């Protein structure tokens, strides 16, 4: 049904991503922009309140009709949960406790993850780093659709179905494109999330747990707030790779709409991203911007010039890395070192060796 997309391949380029060079130019022209780097001191309070709000909603909906549960999931809970995914996005850049406290940021990400219903926080972090470092690079940036997605979802109806199941594609695409070793923090993320889901199920019932999970799926599919998935990097203007949106949805998405600014300065918290454009307007005034995420979704579905192939891609500069960073192990080693555990075990090992050697010598002397 409808006109098929006109592209049959991605938009391959041999140029570097534009964000590194623009960052250098902006810092040179406006060195004061560095004052925006760092943490957002209000962030942890806003996120904590949102998590508590969802727990309250679960309690209030425990005996509600299923129709009300689904409507609330789409109109309210899904918006909150989608905002939590974007809080996790900001947390992945260490904007809560700073770069000096990575474990604190990861643990707080697990808190933000709770109302979403499924564990995504730690896995998102390790793939999102690659998205910034290797933007558009083949098999490294898992934000780009697979070849199979691009070939299958080519008509308006198919593209609509693709949008409907977009959260599932985002969840499973990394497992297909770029396999990484599981880490101890991912295991902890699963344990914490399952425990929280179990508590919601026990105290509030199945409808409340469904409210959380259904809301997450609906609000990241065909939903106005999900327009950012398409608006950020799908090519709507020839030659431009990243796009910003300055509308009201930024109020509940931690300013993720300021996406060009975010890629230019990943270590500036979402709260401060509007100030980037205020400080350096000459670097952003000529770029194409989106005025409506809802219209972005409509355009994606109905415009044959736009589809999963409408992404800029580059050849990979480096091979994939399978290894995982087991952060808890490092902290455990540091703790044991601090309390003298390794020194004690080394002393015991040395003493045991001396005693063993003495006993062997004594026994040998007796035999002789």
From TrEMBL:
Annotated Sphingolipid delta4-desaturase N-terminal domain residues: 5-43
Localization of this protein: Membrane
Transmembrane segments: 68-87, 107-124, 190-214
Enzyme Commission code: 1.14.19.17
Family of the protein in this entry: Belongs to the fatty acid desaturase type 1 family. DEGS subfamily.
UniProt-recorded name of the protein: sphingolipid 4-desaturase
Primary residence: membrane
Keywords of this entry: Lipid metabolism, Membrane, Oxidoreductase, Transmembrane, Transmembrane helix
GO molecular function, one term: sphingolipid delta-4 desaturase activity
GO biological process terms on file: ceramide biosynthetic process
SMART domains assigned: Lipid_DES
One GO cellular component term: membrane
Topology of this chain in the membrane: Multi-pass membrane protein
